[in-house]
Design brief:
The chain is an all-alpha fold. Helix content is 67%, strand content 0%. The chain is built from five helices and no strands. Helix 1 crosses helix 3 (36-44) and helix 2 packs across helix 3. The model has no long low-confidence stretch (mean pLDDT 94).
């Protein structure tokens, strides 16, 4: 599985979790210390999430980190 596939999958999960909270990208970005445009890049699979950022996002969204990986093996 290539990095682009993983990035897109994580981005979709990020968008789902953010939208379930009713938050826009700017709000989530402010909570984790990045611009909303960076959240957009993650959600589109254009930005690669570091382990640290993934952890911060999971904490703010109240989701286990594992939730981001749900279904990844089927995404290949």
């Amino acid at each position: 599985m290539d990095a682009r596939t993983v990035n897109r999958h994580l981005g979709r999960r990020l968008a789902e979790l953010r939208e379930a909270r009713g938050w826009d990208r700017q709000r989530l970005g402010a909570l984790v210390g990045v611009p909303g445009a960076e959240i957009l890049a993650y959600e589109c699979g254009d930005g690669e999430l570091s382990a640290r950022m993934l952890w911060r996002l999971a904490l703010r969204l109240g989701a286990p980190v594992e939730r981001f990986y749900d279904g990844l093996s089927r995404a290949s």
